[in-house]
Amino acid sequence: MNSRAIKLMFSCMILALAVLACSDALAEDTATNGWRGDGSGRFPNARIVTKWSADENIIWSTDMPSSSNALPILVDGKLFVCSEPTTLICLNEKDGKILWSKSSDLKDAGAETKLPKTHRSNGYSSATPTSDGKGVYVVYGTGVAAAYELDGTRRWIKSIERPAGKWGHSASPVLAGGNLIISVVNIVALDPKTGEKVWEVKSSAVWGTPLVTQIGGEDIILAPNGEIIRAKDGKVLTKNKLAMEYNGVLVHGGVLYGFDMHTQAYAYRLPEKITDTFTLKKLWRVRVKADRYYASPVIHDGIMFGLTRKDVLTAVDIKAGKKLYEKNLEFSGKKDFCFPSLVIAGENLLATSENGTTVVIKPGKTYTEIARNKLEPFRSTPLPVGERMYIRGLKKMYCVGK
């Protein structure tokens, strides 16, 4: 091989590595644009440490003005986190410095200023923001939604509807079909640029976050109360009983997976295209630990993992519909619940209690614990990105890593 050919081959190798590096970076960035990243709770590019505490492997921590249950999101080097009752905070991802803080008050939205009822564990800022890379969109337990530019300029603010019931609101906004989808009581689509209503579907209030997937190349929404809706125009394709009363569902390989309110895990195949006779095909249901599943599940290597509010981790083979094991993680504390959802960070499974304990587990057909870590109490789900992980504590925002 002559020198010219060697130089050409070397240049091609460098270009390929650059493209690969860029694609990995893009995958990490675009996977952090909303609740649990893309809704799956999977962060395959994460390379986080497995041991941390308030005194170990903390890159920075920043005091927050108040608590929040919402996840942080990462956009263009900025972390966006919420604070009670209706504040959005922007931090520098590198050092945790607060860049700006903006409130979305009922008065600003032209709504009744009396706060609706909520539970003390829920508050008004449990919904995670979402972003299209140009703006950040928030919705609060007051029923107010707003859009901000990345520099903190408010684009619009709007009162959607007053939350129903006494336990509060937690469903996060999602982007689908060119619309901003919000679930307070009904399912409402807004124009992200103006906040104007595009369509509305009657529903009822539950706590799960809508999941966006595609059928036949079109965005569809799996709504919290069980409606399956075409995102672009609000056409209800079907109503079913797979409501996300407490947690979210997953779509993997064209199959819808989840844990119901109390006793079963399930799998239903989605149709390959949208037709007038849109139906779900039941594949299996399996009995699991009877309890509420506040944490949303994850899937890794053909296994779905679910976590009860009282510490029991369940692994289900998604092909066979067979329970592999149940394990009590013994987080301790009768008053502590497992509110944070499950996370796959690279090759590790993270399970967390609101008391701040996170168990790092090797996800497989048998239970293998890697580490057990403790921070201050938190109800937000950890966000792993690359070699860092961001945790929204009730008092502080943490960046975990080396």
The tally of beta strands, per DSSP, is 33
| Subunit organisation of the chains | single chain
Main sheet specs: 5 strands, mixed
Q: What best-fitting shape do the alpha-carbon axes yield?
A: globular
Helix share of residues?
under 10%
Describe the structure.
With 402 residues, the chain is mainly β. The protein has a domain at 31-63 and 245-402: Methylamine Dehydrogenase, Chain H. 7% of the residues lie in helices and 40% in strands. The protein contains one helix and 33 strands. It has one helix at 3-30; strands spanning 42-43, 58-63, 73-75, 78-83, 87-92, 98-103, 130-131, 135-139, 144-149, 154-159, 174-176, 179-183, 187-190, 197-201, 211-215, 218-222, 227-230, 236-239, 250-252, 255-259, 264-269, 281-287, 298-300, 303-307, 312-317, 322-328, 343-345, 348-352, 357-362, 368-374, 383-385, 388-392, 396-400. A five-stranded mixed sheet has the order 1-27-28-29-30, with no helix packed on it. A four-stranded antiparallel sheet has the order 2-33-32-31, with no helix packed on it. A four-stranded antiparallel sheet has the order 3-4-5-6, with no helix packed on it. The longest helix is centred in the N-terminal third of the chain and has 28 residues, at 3-30. It is globular.
Q: Which short descriptors sum up this protein?
A:
402 residues; mainly beta; Methylamine Dehydrogenase, Chain H; 33 strands; 40% strand; globular
Brief summary of the model shown:
This protein is mainly beta and 402 residues long. The protein has one helix at 3-30; strands spanning 42-43, 58-63, 73-75, 78-83, 87-92, 98-103, 130-131, 135-139, 144-149, 154-159, 174-176, 179-183, 187-190, 197-201, 211-215, 218-222, 227-230, 236-239, 250-252, 255-259, 264-269, 281-287, 298-300, 303-307, 312-317, 322-328, 343-345, 348-352, 357-362, 368-374, 383-385, 388-392, 396-400. The chain has a domain at 31-63 and 245-402: YVTN repeat-like/Quinoprotein amine dehydrogenase (Methylamine Dehydrogenase, Chain H).
